[in-house]
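We modelled the chain as a single entity of 442 amino acids. Its sequence is:
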Amino acid sequence: MRDLTLNELGRRLRDGRLSAVELAAEARANDTHGAYVSVDEARTRAAAEAADAAFRAGVDLGPLQGIPVSVKDLYGVPGFPTAAGSPRRLPAAWEQAGPVVGRALSQLAVVTGKTHTVEFAFGGIGTNPHHPTPRNPCDPQTPRAPGGSSAGAGVSLAEGSAALAFGTDTAGSVRIPAAWTGQVGLKTTKGRWSTDGIVPLSTTLDTAGILARSITDLRVGFEALDPSGDARAEDVVLSGLRLGRPDGLFFEGCSPGVVEAVEAALLALSTRGARITAAALPEAAPAYALFNVGGPVATELHEFLGSELPAWLDGLDPNVRARLAGAGELPAHEYLRRRREMARLAASAAERLSAVDVLVTPTVANTPPPLAEIATPEAYKAANVLCLRNTGVVSYLGLCAITLPVGTDAAGMPVGLQLVGRPMSEPRLLAIAATIAQALGG
């Protein structure tokens, strides 16, 4: 399974060279890094048997039929508990499938389990004291952070226990784990995919997204799940493609080797005909300032927990609780001011992107930290703020983005290249990412 694209897996499932039961068993055998918080082998096998039976009957329900998929423990999946990273099962209403998971289940995708998340998705490192943190498969010697908040999603792909992973992205929670585990990931534009059936972090910024092992697989997954009817754009050529590089914030304070890996990728693209140009993005600094004071996110999570799950507040992960400090006292006028400022910055940034095809930045500024180095609250906070910076700014500006692996840093860990597009431009962004990945040999 690890060496086959989704399209090739689909071909083999349809012509009988593979069975969904075999794929599900292989996926289960590869669950070796703690990616999952909940598995149900009998349910997974039954789903695989149903997919195989449909194939034998000549029923083809879509490209995800029989494909092993992991699902972040924020999404409702019938038959699986939802805890949102907390130590307690949430009410049964949160176990119902929303439109995104529903589209996968309607195609007879095979759910391999619910993957680990930072508690209520409020963190970028991927740790959670309520459950053992999934180990990043890219360092077999040192236990390192997997990236969050979709902590188990990237791990499930890297270890081979899933062929497609469902995550969510509020300020980087798809892109960070994808980048830190050497996968690809898509942060959709707010509103493109419904967040119904997903435990909320921020009603303003939450987006559903997917992670995959290649950009080819990501396109297949997006086209299978997108409800718009215009999920595929024409392929693009690299020659003349305008890649805007916003110097400054995105390239500052990075771990050794991160910028170098991105620079090498951009140089390779330039020699193959892409146009790398300086791209001013003055909206980035005020967006980052809003992020650093919590934007609307902390207040929205505090309100949700207080209204819907008040019994969960006292037992929160200390790192999550620290980020919620004072969120309940934010004046309404300040909350509204932040929302209004974000909307203004987003409109300005979207207009500015008309001068380029995509923006290019490092996806994550820092290398995945060893877990031992982020054991104190101070160390965790510093690493968490830095890992969320580049992705968080993009989210606060209302843009869509993809991360692609483009090499390794000085610690030998994966480095991601973030491609940023205008709102609702996902099909073209995916086409551009495919061209770039092909040019870089990915």
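As a brief sanity check on the tokenised model: The mean pLDDT is 97. The first helix runs from residue 6 to 15.
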